[in-house]
Amino acid sequence: MKFRKWASVGVTTAFLLASGVAFAQGQGHGHGQGHDKDKHSRGNDSDHDEHAYYSSRDRDAMRGWYNDHRDHLPRGLAKRDQLPPGLERQLVVRGTLPPGLRKKMERCPEDLERRLPPPPPDCEHVFIGGHIVLLNRRTFMVVDVFHFEIG
Description:
By secondary structure, the protein is of the alpha+beta class. 32% of the residues lie in helices and 13% in strands. It is built from five helices and four strands. A four-stranded antiparallel sheet has the order 1-2-3-4, with no helix packed on it. A hairpin with a 5-residue loop joins strand 3 (131-136) and strand 4 (142-147).
């Protein structure tokens, strides 16, 4: 009787250990899983980030508009409008726009708006210190950011 009891405990333990190992597979961060979660940092125009709103095509359209208007840029895009490094670091995708940056927002010109995809509900395209920002107007959450190389 004792042997049967220990055998059933042993089989049950082996089953639980095996199922725990099987469950844990695929949950770790090895083999590329979970790495580069924040792929959409400024300067990376990759379309591989499923959270990015602007596609490569949209970014090309923004660059084209910028090149067409380089000689007479609106407020928010001119070199004098660049953000200091402290404020620049606060402009992050899926972050909340701080009050200091809210004061620096400028409307996106109509001719650029026509080149961009329509914004999601409650969102708008704005200029902030050399960037086009897709911003949720109600929550001030940054949906996406495109940085112009202002030289």
